[in-house]
Automatic annotation (TrEMBL):
Top-rank lineage group of the source organism: Bacteria
Ranges of residues in domain ABC transporter: 25-269
Subcellular location: Cell inner membrane; Cell membrane
Record keywords: ATP-binding, Cell membrane, Hydrolase, Membrane, Nucleotide-binding, Transmembrane, Transmembrane helix, Transport
Family, as annotated: Belongs to the ABC transporter superfamily.
UniProt source species: Blastochloris viridis
Segment forming the signal sequence: none
Any one of the GO CC terms: ATP-binding cassette (ABC) transporter complex
GO MF annotation list: ATP binding; ATP hydrolysis activity; transmembrane transporter activity
Name this protein carries in UniProt: L-cystine import ATP-binding protein TcyC
Main localization, broad class: membrane
Length: 273
């Protein structure tokens, strides 16, 4: 397979050639800098459709930046990312890439759902309204249809009795489950979770992990940044250990978590386990 040519920020990818391997998410030689700090350093990774990837690593290692790059909330400085064969932030014409306009980037962003540590629900909207807002506003779905689907999604995350509650009337675990239903409502190809349980009281962690585990079996491609190593071991197909913006180790959970090749992985795991 042909290697892709890097897209460099100072001379955007127009003209760069482009080749994908058929993964749901393909990250090709991605580098991202903040000023002089190289936060992602030549990261390459292919995620198969329907796969579940756990992204682990110390604070500041670039995990959130990698997720944000997949969603094009960050613009990478070199390399490129493709979702379902389509380059993020670029349009493909033949084997060449051309940068997308802002409006087109926003349209494409619905392919990738994101769930944050801090839920980020609209505080003035009920659970149901939080879930139907984007399908109606972004996808232009008729309200009745969007509401029927939202009720199904809220049932799926165990919140049938909370559809009319406002976020302040819900526990952290319930708010996070609304956030998951909201992300699913746009029918994303890929769903990204950035430490979805880190802001929760310990007794609420499992109700959210259980919902994610159920999703993992449903065929949507998932990437989960987590410090819940037991959960990663049980649910992920692949564990990626990131440190200093580089992938140190990648492989099946039983190998990366139980027989890591690298001293740095061993050291990290000894701190979080
Ligand atoms: P992680 O999620 O693994 O904790 P991040 O991706 O949030 O790591 O951050 C990686 C590094 O990039 C950190 O050193 C962080 O301070 C820095 N960083 C993240 N976002 C920005 C930003 N917008 N501007 C400057 N530095 C940033
Ligand atoms: Mg982070």
């Amino acid at each position: 397979l042909v290697r892709a040519v890097a897209a460099v920020a100072s001379s955007p990818a127009a003209g760069a050639s482009f080749e994908v391997h058929g993964g749901a998410v393909e990250i090709h030689n991605v580098t991202k800098r903040f000023g002089t700090l190289r936060v992602l350093d030549d990261v390459s990774l292919t995620l198969a459709p329907g796969s579940v990837t756990a992204l682990i690593g110390p604070s500041g290692s670039g995990k959130s930046t990698l997720l944000r790059s997949i969603n094009h909330l960050e613009r990478v400085d070199a390399g490129f990312i493709a979702i379902d064969g389509e380059p993020v932030g670029y349009r493909r014409v033949g084997d060449k890439l051309f940068e997308l306009r802002k409006s087109e980037i926003l349209k494409r962003r619905v392919d990738v759902g994101m769930v944050f540590q801090t839920f980020n629900l609209f505080p003035h909207l009920t659970a149901l309204e939080n879930v139907v807002e984007a399908p109606i506003e972004v996808r232009g779905r008729p309200r009745a249809e969007a509401e029927a689907e939202a009720l199904e999604l809220l049932a799926r995350v165990g919140l049938s009795d909370k559809t009319d509650a406002f976020p302040r009337q819900l526990s952290g675990g319930q708010q996070q489950r609304v956030a998951i239903a909201r992300a699913l409502a746009l029918k994303p190809k890929v769903l990204l979770f950035d430490e979805p349980t880190s802001a929760l009281d310990p007794e609420l962690v499992n109700e959210v992990l259980d919902v994610i585990e159920e999703l993992a079996r449903s065929g949507v491609t998932l990437v989960i940044v987590t410090h819940e190593i037991g959960f990663a071991r049980r649910v992920a197909d692949t564990v990626v250990f990131l440190e200093g913006g580089r992938i140190v180790e990648v492989g099946p959970p039983e190998r990366v978590l139980e027989q890591p090749d690298h001293e740095r992985t061993v050291r990290f795991l000894s701190k979080v386990l």
